[in-house]
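Lab manual, section 2.4: Encoding a predicted structure.

Procedure: take the sequence of the chain (242 residues), apply the prediction step described in section 2.3, and record the output as structure tokens. A sample record is shown.
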Amino acid sequence: MSKLPRNHNATHDVDAFLEKVRRTPAPAVPSGKRGRLIFALDATMSRQPTWDVACQIQGEMFDATRAIGGLDVQLVYFRGFGECKAGAWQPDAAGLARLMSKVACHAGKTQIGKVLTHVKKQTDQGKVGAVVYVGDAFEEDIDDVCHTAGELGILGVPVFVFQEGADPIAQRAFREIARLTNGAWCPFDLASADRLKALLSAVAVYAAGGLKALEDYGRTERAGAATALLQQLQGPKGKPPR
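Recorded output:
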């Protein structure tokens, strides 16, 4: 597994990521409706260790949004030769964990374009508050993928990209996907699993109910590290997102 360069300022990248989330327009979730988030993962062979970590921490997303009406999450993954699948929408952590536990990582090339196309189709059926994508490589035509990313940006679906490792080709593509969708890019590794957990919770709450929901969540005792994240999401002097 590739590691971040020694001079890589991870703290700066996380701060930049959170600032980008703060400035992302809050999704409009109709009153009484549950938020919807697509959790997309690269399931090619190099991703097995992080897939296991994701299985362990995905429940935090549901826990974080329970107080604001809940969250429905759809698992999307690709692996092997042209295999890209999406599960049924899951209303709780147990259902998503069951789906993830049945998936084994297989060698293959990335299929991020298919993932974004699927997200676009899901948006036609109902509002998707955000997409979380976790991956470490990019092996596709960047123009084609970015065209679809731009369409998601027009539809108001931000993609929050978590990059494992420091592959420069992947970083260039991931940053562009995030830019075009008004999302954000952030690096991570297995050593920062707790940070990933906190960030996923923050994005989930934001996807389900916007900054106001995250503010309320930050006041609860169980929020823990999310309180510190909230302070960064609000920006200097508590300014609301633009």
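Check your result against the sample. Residues 24 and 182 are 6 Å apart (CA to CA).
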